[in-house]
Amino acid sequence: MALRRIAGRNASLELEDGLIRAIQPGEPGETRWLAPGFVDLQVNGWLGHDLNAPGLTPETVSAMVAALARTGATRLLPTVITASDERMTAAVRAIAAACETDPRAAAAVAGIHVEGPHVSPNDGPRGAHPLADVRAPDIALFDRLQAAAGGRIVMVTLSPHWPSALAYIAALAAWGVRVAIGHTDAGRDEIDRAVTAGATLSTHLGNGIAAMLPRHPNIIWTQLAEDRLTATFIGDGHHLPGDTLKAMVRAKGPERAILVSDATALGGMPPGLYRQPIGGDVELTPEGRLGVRGTPYLAGAARSLADGVAVTANVVGMEIALRMATLNPGRILGGEAGRFLVGRPADLVRFAWPQGESRLAIDLVLAHGREVDPGGDGP
Questions:
Q1: pTM of the predicted protein model
Q2: Measured between alpha carbons, how far is 377 from 302 in angstroms, rounded to an integer?
Q3: CA distance to 14, 80, 221, 351, per residue, from 18 (Å)
Q4: In the CATH scheme, what is the homologous superfamily, with its name and number, of domain 36-339?
Q5: Where are the domains of the chain?
Q6: Exposed e or buried b for every residue in 183-218, given b needs 16+ CB within 10 A?
Q7: Residues 328-358 pLDDT 10s
């Protein structure tokens, strides 16, 4: 089989049958970027496919995975949020079934992220998580979910304010599950104890918190200053202003900062008015802002991780933005995601990006060595 050469300004690859055979420096004069496929640690849906809707099927999971691959996201953690025990169990079971029956889903899904149900019950930090289903950390519930998921749950987001949180965090950390702090109004000492117990991440730092905070100390400063925590950020241009995101990335350092999409089912859909189960009447603008109609409030995220890379690159530079969407989240997963490795199937995305643009012009995606038709990522 003839070798195929794929080049960008920062790397050049030789491929054979979808496998990386050699990695070389980028081509002189090449204006396009070549990066490992994007790794999204938090995605709830895309292009109408909703992981948290009742009756989730393996086919919906597979369709979402395929749609996200067209945006350059080749590895991801499908994210299940707070709901009843029965609904969360059914959701993780459907994701597991997709991985068992669809080889492309199995290659893309690096695990499952369970966000909740152990979040703050208070308005503001709870976000869109339904109050009726919020409850204290319960190892027995985790065991049931993990059994239904076939052992695929690799990340859990919770609020550490619960009395049972420390034992829960320690147990999950001992089992190799990443624990993240999020949707919380926990105090400084509670966060410190959670990190000591084994929490290693902050989920979408700067969001999922109260609208009004003390100047200091507060939950943002505490997590930014905690070097044992790696922080994820929604870099869509709507959840965090550019100067805020820049300051936060500088505080954490490029090695402890990760981009996530946190995209909902309306991500990638045409602009317009929609009614959704959580949030009610919402408006999706041409700029990808999803808000509660007639209010200044966001109703979730609706831009791809590729868009997040472009927006963040305008703030911190493309090299750092790519690291936040590839190498850093890949390291959290502890495997081969987010980097090029000789002898492994190629996950890659090639794109042009004129500085100042808020979207990438993707012209090539390979997912697990197979070429994907790029595009289809909506507004």
A1: 0.96
A2: 10
A3: 9, 32, 45, 19
A4: Metal-dependent hydrolases (3.20.20.140)
A5: 36-339
A6: bbbbebebbbbbbebbbbbbbbbbbbbbeeeeeeeb
A7: 999 999 978 999 999 999 999 999 999 999 9
